[in-house]
UniProtKB/TrEMBL annotation:
It comes from Rhynchospora pubera. Keywords: Glycosyltransferase, Transferase. This is Glycosyltransferase. Belongs to the UDP-glycosyltransferase family. PROSITE patterns: UDPGT. Coiled coil: none annotated. It is an enzyme of class 2 (transferase). The keyword Cell cycle does not apply. Its EC number is 2.4.1.-.
């Protein structure tokens, strides 16, 4: 790993990192921050006031720590956290129900505040009260193109970071072709299993139903979300670089296509494994938790310790999915009827307008008994640790990109139930391309879920996907150590940032 520039007259790069304020985006951009600190950089991680206060609440409820640095963030020298308001009411849903308004508010209301903060941070001659030099580069979430433009307007070069898979970005980039070919929006009565032909490199496996949800849901070519994703992806072409939390071996075809348009693309993932490998090789003792907007319930680890090897199906729908009561009940009955042990993350805001605990009374006695005997339901877990636990045999996942990478690194096969945005294409990669799991998209009835859970946990199919997952994990882990593609790409990224900071 690089060290700070030996020429002491050159101030070390100071990078401001600004993730879109939801859990999945914050996690991997925090890992990137940590990696850059290890490379000698100063890092300011910019969060929203809302999220920072959630982190502070979580840290004070977990350890009564009065330190102003939230303890759920790693306490690392040269890494600090600042925040700006997202300018939305405290009770605005910051999940899939409210993310478009969140984006709008960041653009209209928060962006001017960001610009004036950045002006203050980049115009210093010396160091500030925290001992940080002037900001010399910005890495902003690629779905915030207006923040990238604002940075450049202030005179700070900006790089885009997209947290989703390269394959989903490649599809977003091709939205104009999908529209031109008439494949999107779907015509009435379209066969969802029909192949999609206008995405170069994906002709052999991509079906209509595997397209990201904005393509599936658009009613007309001007659809707001469809155009928003097309526009912010095309915007990355005009930035100083594009960082992706993926790796060459997993997504070589999409990366090759993306690089034909955006040559300075750096595939440096999986970042959580990069950080872990760096810490363990260098005896860095940093606390190993991701930033958590929900309080992590670590009692599940004790529960896992008591379960037999590979006997548990771990179930989670990520950080932003919102479900109906009916769907949740189908899952509940299926999990119990499968006879498997299950660890189930049910977030406090998973159900729209209702506490999930209300459902308990409407369940049959048999389902309640099965839950008590074989289930453990919690609101949030340390997911990377859960996926590394030997009791976990399979991950029933919504196929968010972080969860997918975390499962791959853990060597845990997946049962995919994609929900929205990039998840539909991610689950297709898992089921059809890498063959490390089963794709259950568009099914939500108890009979199918039970059948799929059984198939993913036991029998011939289960052995095959487990074997493939194990092999893929080895390959992926090799990419983050010296000589591996992500490791080498990361070194190139460091040089690129330094060249921008001169
Ligand atoms: C969505 C998209 O689907 C994803 O692909 C995109 O890149 C980010 O936005 P999200 O629902 O947040 O993602 O899922 P995911 O990307 O999987 O991220 C969830 C994160 O929360 C993971 O890093 C996971 O480890 C963490 N998590 C989840 C926990 O730490 N504990 C939990 O109980 C559940």
């Amino acid at each position: 790993m690089e060290t700070p520039d030996s020429d002491s007259s050159v101030p070390p790069p100071h990078v401001l990192i600004f993730p879109f304020p939801i859990q999945g985006h914050m996690n991997c951009m925090l890992y990137l921050s940590e990696m850059l600190v290890y490379s000698g950089f100063h890092i300011t991680l910019l969060l929203t006031d809302h999220n920072l206060s959630l982190l502070r609440n979580n840290s004070s409820s977990s350890n009564n720590n009065n330190n102003s640095h939230p303890s759920s963030l790693p306490n690392i020298p040269r890494l600090r956290v600042l925040s700006i308001p997202d300018c939305l009411p405290a009770d605005h849903p910051r999940n899939l129900d409210g993310w478009v308004e969140l984006l709008d508010s960041l653009k209209t209301n928060a962006c001017p505040l960001y610009k004036s903060l950045l002006l203050d941070l980049c115009k210093m001659d010396d160091v500030d009260a925290d001992g940080f030099p002037a900001v010399t580069c910005v890495i902003a979430d690629g779905i915030l193109p207006f923040m990238i433009d604002a940075s450049e307007e202030v005179g700070v070069p900006a790089i885009a970071f997209r947290t989703a898979s390269a394959s989903s970005l490649w599809i977003y980039y091709c939205i104009p072709q999908l529209i031109q070919s008439g494949e999107v929006p779907f015509r009435d009565g379209a066969d969802w299993d029909e192949p999609i032909n206008s995405i170069p490199g994906m002709e052999s496996f991509l079906r209509r139903r595997d397209l990201p949800s904005p393509c599936r849901l658009a009613k007309n070519p001007e659809d707001k979300v469809l155009q928003l994703l097309a526009t912010c992806t095309a915007h990355s072409e005009r930035t100083r670089g594009l960082i992706l939390n993926t790796l060459e071996t997993l997504e070589s075809i999409s990366l090759e296509q993306i690089r034909a348009h955006m040559p300075t693309t750096y595939a440096i993932g999986p970042l959580h494994e990069m950080v872990r490998a760096y810490r363990s090789q260098n005896n860095v003792c940093a606390h190993d938790k991701s930033v958590s907007l929900w309080h992590q319930d670590c009692t599940c680890m004790t529960w896992l310790d008591q379960q037999p090897h590979r006997s548990v199906i771990y179930v989670s729908y990520g950080s932003v999915a919102v479900m109906t009561r009916e769907s949740l009940i189908e899952f509940w009955i299926a999990l119990v009827n499968s006879g498997e042990h299950f660890l189930w993350v049910v977030r406090s805001d998973l159900l729209r307008g209702e506490e999930w605990t209300n459902i308990w009374d409407s369940l049959s006695l048999e389902v309640r008994k099965g839950t008590e005997e074989r289930g453990c339901i919690v609101s949030w877990v340390p997911q990377v640790e859960v996926l590394a636990h030997p009791a976990v045999g399979c991950f029933l996942t919504h196929s968010g990109w972080n969860s997918t990478l975390e499962s791959i690194v853990g060597g845990v096969p997946m049962l995919c139930w994609p929900f929205a945005v990039d998840q539909q294409i991610n689950s297709r990669l898992v089921g059809e391309v890498w063959r490390i799991g089963l794709d259950m998209k568009d099914a939500c009835d108890k009979t199918t879920i039970e059948k799929m859970v059984r198939a993913a946990m036991n029998g011939e199919t289960a052995s095959e996907i487990r074997k493939n997952a194990h092999e893929l994990a080895k390959m992926v882990k090799n990419s983050v150590v010296e000589g591996g593609s992500s490791f080498e790409n990361f070194q190139r990224l460091i040089e690129h940032i330094k060249s921008l900071c001169k």
